[in-house]
Amino acid sequence: MVLNELGQRISNALAMVNNAETIDEKVLDACLKEITTALLQADVNVKLVMNLRTNVKVRANNADKGAGLNKRKIIEKSVVDELSSMLSSGLDEKQLVDLKKGKPNVVMFVGLQATGKTTTCTKYGAFYKKKGFKPALVCADTFRAGAFDQLKQNATKMQIPFYGSYTETDPAVIAAKGVDEFKKANHDLIIVDTSGRHKQEESLFEEMRQVAAQTKPDLIIFVMDGSIGQAAHDQAKAFKDTVEVGAVIMTKMDGHAKGGGALSAVAATQSPIIFIGTGEHMDEFERFEAKAFVGRLLG
Ligand code: GDP
Q: Whole-angstrom Cα distance, residue 229 to residue 40?
């Protein structure tokens, strides 16, 4: 199911309430059944979906105790609120996006291979360069042949300094050296790209721990392919359990991206989504807005 289909189904379910003459238990249950089915089929975590159902029911029943006139609106608003709050983890997303100037912010990127991590590192650097930061990129991916060349190519295109090695095999050593060098050169945003493997192998996680220990990042960003569904929850949780993930970036939100992964990743990492990738080009990168995302979802 593509994102728009999920939104369409939720909108249709809300229309059932809007079109009903009286909103009794039966109408509300039918509406919530359709919404929960749509969310589950979009791979949203079961617990989250059940929470939404309970909370909307409570708010709708409370409306009964009042004048009852606004019940339609209350149901609609509570569905929108619940979806938005599923997407914001309660952490201050703005704070994570507004990096502090005048100090060396070290930001480490983690995620599985082919999620778009390397591309996103450069997009992220370019975003802050435009805001007046002095970014630099460190390639601590010694696993994938060609990773350094790819980072170099992207970085050169965006005129961002980079650091890497063709001979050093220990990613933690490269990361430490790179961060150190760029700190000395007064860079205020040092981005560390790490290896991504196909699966959640233990060696990948051990390597991540070591890179984090060496570079002491101010922020660790988990990069996730926006088109994965239910797998998002376990994948995100495995990363969060290993390193202190503080934010999520979802890539490939162009194309046939599902919305379910977004909801699950936020729940698993208890971290907000801060940006989305919307294409292969360096400028196809946007701030994530939960309300706008839900608004788009519901058309
Ligand atoms: P990594 O292995 O995680 O570092 O992934 P790469 O950065 O090499 O990206 C893998 C592929 O995904 C490349 O072909 C990228 O151009 C592509 N890619 C990255 N981000 C996006 C995105 O937001 N949208 C689309 N459509 N493709 C993307």
A: 10
Nearest Cα residue to 108 out of 214, 181, 197, 261: 214
Question: Relative to the CA of 114, which ligand 1 atom is closest?
Answer: 2
Q: Which atom of ligand 1 lies at the shortest distance from residue 223's CA?
A: 3
Ligand 1 centroid from CA 147, angstroms = 12
Evaluate whether 29 touches 57 at the Cβ level (below 8 Å).
Answer: no
Mutation probe of ligand 1 site: the residue of 222, 224, 280, 285 with most atoms within 8 A of C-beta: 280
- Token pair, residue 175, equals 């990361």
b (16+ CB within 10 A) / e for 183-195: eeeebbbbbbbbb
Residues with CB under 6 A from ligand 1: 111, 113-119, 196, 251-252, 254-255, 277-280, 284
Q: If you take atom 26 of ligand 1, which residue's CA is the nearest one? A: 279
Task: Please write the tens of the pLDDT for every residue from 72-123.
Answer: 889 999 999 998 887 875 556 667 777 888 889 999 999 999 999 999 999 9
pTM of the model: 0.86
pLDDT band at residue 145, thresholds of 50, 70 and 90? confident
Tokens 């239910």: give the residue: 230
CB atoms within 10 A of CB 238: 16
